[in-house]
Design goal:
Elements (H helix, E strand, L loop, with lengths): L7 E6 L6 H12 L1 E5 H10 L3 H10 L7 H14 L5 E5 L5 H13 L6 E6 L2 H15 L7 H23 L4 E5 L4 H15 L1
Parallel strand pairs: 1-3, 1-4, 2-3, 4-5
Helix pairs in contact: 1-8, 2-3, 2-4, 4-5, 6-7
């Protein structure tokens, strides 16, 4: 870990089907990082009916997006519970510029910062193939319908890709080819993270 950083904060980035979750779990073990998936956070808070989960549900039940401050509060709680790790690898967050700014403020309050956003690059056809394959076993309806998958990829490009540019403007975004064997992609990511930590 670099002297100027208390902890390492990495964002693993990429469209649905790019392998973020798989790679984040492998990197978590290798580097003693804590993988934080916003999907997992929501499932935990809602499933355990915590005060934050209840707040989130009150918005979701009305069909509204959960405000960023609630998502950040969930994230903060998770990170505060795990202060003993080398750092964190975020999977699925931030998704918007507003979330980037809120996350940066939160980290700044902790005397920390984002070290790098690592984007897995996979072409659209490969993403569709992967997600349809995953849909055979995942039980997720949004993995089984090609039109829905293509729409998810479009939403990612339109709404989430500006996050890459936000951190790129700070000199923090890097791209890694996300195709090949899982072990090959893991090696590429590991080499990059070794240079960061």
């Amino acid at each position: 870990m670099k002297d100027s950083q208390k902890r390492v904060n990495l964002i693993l980035f990429g469209p649905p089907g790019s392998g973020k979750g798989t790679q984040a779990k492998m990197l978590e073990k290798k580097f003693d990082l804590l993988q934080i998936s916003t999907g997992d956070l929501f499932r935990y808070e809602l499933g355990n009916n915590t005060p934050l989960g209840q707040k989130a549900r009150s918005y979701m039940d009305k069909g509204h997006l959960v405000p960023d401050e609630i998502t950040i509060a969930m994230l903060k709680r998770k990170m505060d519970q795990h202060n003993d790790v080398v750092g964190y690898i975020l999977d699925g967050f931030p998704r918007t510029i507003a979330q980037c700014e809120a996350f940066d403020r939160f980290l700044d309050d902790r005397g920390e910062a984002v070290n790098s956003l690592i984007s897995l690059i996979v072409d659209d056809n490969e993403l569709v193939t992967r997600l349809l394959e995953r849909g055979k076993t995942s039980g997720r309806a949004d993995d089984a319908n090609e039109a829905v998958i293509k729409n998810r990829i479009d939403v990612y490009k339109n709404e989430t890709s500006p996050v890459y540019e936000y951190y790129n403007n700070k000199g923090l975004s890097v791209e890694i080819p996300g195709v090949g064997k899982i072990e090959e992609i893991h090696t590429r990511l590991s080499e990059m993270i070794t240079n960061i930590i």
